[in-house]
Amino acid sequence: MDNHTDIQYVDMDLAAIRKESGVTQKEICVILNVTRQTVYTYERTQKVPKYMYDKLAEKCPNLLQTPKAEKAKRMAKVLEEEAVIGKRTYHGKYNVNKGLTWNYQG
Fold first, then answer.
1. Range(s) of the domain holding residue 73
2. Are 73 and 79 in contact (CB under 8 A)?
3. How many domains are contained in the chain?
4. Cα(first)–Cα(last) distance of the chain, in Å?
5. 0.70 exceeded by the pTM?
6. What is the pLDDT of residues 68-86, one digit of tens each?
7. Residue 85 forms beta bridges with which residues?
8. Can you tell me the distance from the alpha carbon of 34 to that of 39, in angstroms, rounded to the nearest whole number?
């Protein structure tokens, strides 16, 4: 990822999911190799970069097996789907209130 504007985010209540799974903030820091401040920011904003979500899914799949993680799993799956319309590439984005929307990615 060369440009930070290209980062996709997964809406995810990491704090609730973490607590439901019995995982500490410190354990999340170790799994993601980030600082506690970074984990705190993810928890406060309830958004996790897609590449960090993928890292969680790979290194701690049990964390994402909780009922509270279902919305995040659906959204991450949609973010992986692409539709090419003409010469423009669109990426699907899942929003709980709006459903699936497609956004143009330059």
1. 4-104
2. no
3. 1
4. 14
5. no
6. 888 788 777 766 664 444 4
7. 88
8. 7
Name the token pair of 44.
């406060």
List alpha helices for 1-106, DSSP H. 14-21, 25-32, 36-45, 50-59, 70-80
Per-residue pLDDT at 106 exceeds 80? no
- Bridge partner residues of 10 (DSSP): 48
pLDDT at 50: 87
CATH number at residue 99: 1.10.260
Split at pLDDT 50, 70, 90, the class of 98 is low
More confident residue, 93 or 23: 23
Q: How many CB atoms lie within 10 A of CB 17?
A: 24
